[in-house]
């Protein structure tokens, strides 16, 4: 029997009973208590109902991380509708696709947003009933709505909420989840790995429109009664340092691209490198733990972060399909360069291209299974058949090596290159390239030389370096000293920036053949 309990209502009721006047969210100078969150979520549900949204409908949310976002997510769920979470960084055409693909009956966004422009492109689409404009606290007129609402009992006939994959290998895919999947991140990752308690303050640089940010700012915060910090702007290094100093989070969640920026912007205090206060007043002393996900954390970056800040950083891997981190390092046992061990509640296996399990030390395709993993893509039966296997196994698309229970990322399966008789992981080549002091960022992708596949290096230089042939030769010479001959790039291309998804993942497919 499907779970018919309204999980959004359960989470808020639990926090209203335990600590109604505690801060659920902090944003800028303002605080949103659990009591106020519950009241405005009910008002949001009544507003959606008044605009024609019914149980089972989809509601596309395109909002900055602000108080309006959790209110809208929970309000839609109260009604039994499915919030569809999307990044604010897409084009009008992208939003038109999402509205059409999800068959959303309502769009919640700010006035004159690209999403609103996308809705205009679909003026004749019958499913879209309403466009609701919202400020940072919620839609205009929200306070006029009633807080009286009986949460809908779920039927199990449709998604409880939906995200879209970040599209690192092409057009985004809708990933539907049940409301009950909101409870999964706290069970293993949140409690047994991170040790989150109601005393913690959580800050995710990843936005709530992405699975990583949603897991932190909604799932862990509400299920474990913690406080979450929301930042509506674009998270640059100095902005992140300022938010950390202001709100004093105890756990910080970020992606490797931003950690790299933070390391470059960090200046150790005059009192010594163990001080967590830099010369500009940046204060990291509240942090007890950091988390990295979204892509593999390079070992040098992991080591440098911990050297500079004195705060452990736990690399891990999760996915939108799993709505959780399923492999992670552990506090006190960080292995820089490795993703760590399987999180409680999950199973993992490594298999070859024929589906046979491979032994330790041999690269294999990572499959995982566990509670909360979606069993289908939205409107994509072809991709569902490729990715969701019998027995509940999920094909992650990542290649790993396992040694004594510890998993080390080798790259994406579709990024792997067959050079001669050897498989080459772009991650390994990138790690060697990053050891050159002139390199700020890099990616390795396949190119063809006389019809043969060979690695090509795509490099962004650190400030103060000029893209010269002499520098290219020097970088490649150093790489050859660190790599097997078949792994060495045959060419190096300089770029002002690398193509990336909104979550910071390099889109290597855009570099192939360059």
Structural notes for this entry:
- The chain has 514 residues and is of the alpha/beta class.
- It is built from 13 helices and 24 strands.
- The protein has helices at residues 7-18, 34-50, 68-78, 92-102, 114-120, 184-193, 211-224, 237-247, 256-265, 299-309, 381-387, 426-433, 469-482; strands at residues 23-27, 30-33, 58-61, 82-85, 106-109, 130-133, 161-164, 174-177, 201-204, 227-229, 251-254, 289-292, 313-319, 324-328, 341-342, 346-351, 364-370, 394-403, 406-412, 417-419, 422-424, 439-449, 452-461, 491-494.
- The strands form 5 sheets. It has a 9-stranded mixed sheet, sandwiched between helices. The chain has a 6-stranded mixed sheet with strand order 6-5-3-4-7-8, with helices on both faces. It has a 4-stranded antiparallel sheet with strand order 16-17-18-19.
- A hairpin with a 2-residue loop joins strand 20 (417-419) and strand 21.
- The protein is globular.
- The termini are far apart.
- The relative contact order is 0.09.
Largest beta sheet: strand ordering? 2-1-10-9-11-12-13-14-15
End-to-end Cα distance: 52 Å
What percentage of amino acids are in beta strands?
15-25%
Q: In which range does the helix fraction lie?
A: 25-40%
Give the overall pLDDT as a whole number.
91
Total DSSP E strands: 24
Shape: globular
Radius of gyration: 23 Å
Q: How many helices? A: 13
Low-confidence stretches: 270-275
Largest β sheet strand count, sense and barrel closure: 9 strands, mixed
Structural class by sheet pairing and helices: alpha/beta
């Amino acid at each position: 029997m499907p779970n018919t309990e309204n999980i959004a209502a359960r989470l808020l009721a639990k926090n209203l009973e335990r600590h109604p006047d505690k801060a659920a969210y902090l944003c800028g100078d303002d605080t949103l208590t659990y009591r106020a969150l519950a009241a405005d979520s009910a008002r949001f549900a009544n507003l959606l109902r008044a605009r024609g949204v019914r149980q089972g409908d989809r509601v596309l949310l395109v909002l900055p991380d602000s108080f309006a976002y959790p209110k809208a997510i929970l309000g839609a769920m109260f009604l039994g509708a499915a919030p569809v979470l999307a990044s604010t960084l897409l084009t009008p055409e992208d939003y038109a696709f999402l509205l059409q693909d999800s068959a959303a009956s309502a769009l919640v966004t700010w006035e004159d947003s690209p999403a609103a422009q996308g809705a205009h492109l679909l003026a004749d689409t019958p499913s879209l009933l309403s466009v609701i404009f919202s400020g940072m606290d919620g839609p205009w007129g929200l306070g006029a709505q009633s807080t009286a609402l009986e949460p809908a009992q779920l039927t199990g006939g449709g998604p409880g909420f939906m995200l879209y994959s970040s599209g690192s290998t092409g057009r985004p895919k809708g990933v539907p989840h049940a409301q009950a999947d909101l409870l999964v991140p706290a069970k293993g990752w949140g409690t047994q790995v991170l040790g989150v308690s109601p005393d913690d303050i959580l800050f995710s640089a990843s936005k709530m429109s992405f699975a990583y940010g949603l897991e932190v700012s909604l799932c862990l915060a509400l299920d474990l009664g913690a406080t979450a910090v929301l930042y509506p702007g674009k998270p640059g290094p100095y902005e992140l340092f300022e938010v950390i100093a202001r709100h004093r989070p105890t756990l910080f969640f970020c992606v490797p691209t931003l950690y790299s920026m933070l390391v470059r912007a960090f200046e150790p205090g005059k009192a010594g490198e163990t001080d967590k206060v830099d010369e500009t007043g940046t204060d990291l002393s509240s942090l007890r733990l950091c988390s990295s996900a979204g892509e593999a954390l390079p070992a040098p970056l992991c080591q440098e972060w911990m050297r500079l800040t004195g705060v452990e950083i736990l690399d891990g891997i999760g996915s939108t399909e799993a709505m959780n981190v399923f492999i992670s390092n552990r506090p006190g046992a960080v292995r820089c360069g490795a993703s760590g061990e399987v999180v409680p509640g999950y199973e993992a296996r490594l298999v070859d291209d024929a589906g046979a399990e491979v032994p330790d030390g041999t690269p294999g395709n990572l499959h995982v299974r566990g509670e909360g993993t979606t069993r289908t893509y939205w409107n994509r039966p072809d991709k569902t058949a490729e990715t969701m296997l019998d027995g509940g196994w999920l094909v992650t698309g990542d290649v790993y090596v396992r040694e004594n229970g510890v998993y080390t990322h080798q790259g994406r399966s579709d990024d792997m290159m067959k050079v001669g008789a050897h498989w080459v992981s772009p991650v390994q080549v990138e790690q060697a390239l990053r050891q050159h002091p002139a390199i700020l960022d890099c990616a390795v992708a396949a190119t063809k030389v006389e019809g043969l596949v060979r690695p090509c290096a795509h490099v962004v230089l650190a400030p103060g370096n000029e893209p010269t042939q002499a520098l290219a030769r020097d970088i490649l010479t150093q790489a050859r000293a660190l790599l097997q001959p078949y792994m060495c790039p045959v060419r190096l291309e300089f770029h002002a920036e690398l193509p990336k998804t909104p979550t910071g993942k390099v889109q290597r497919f855009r570099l192939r053949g360059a």
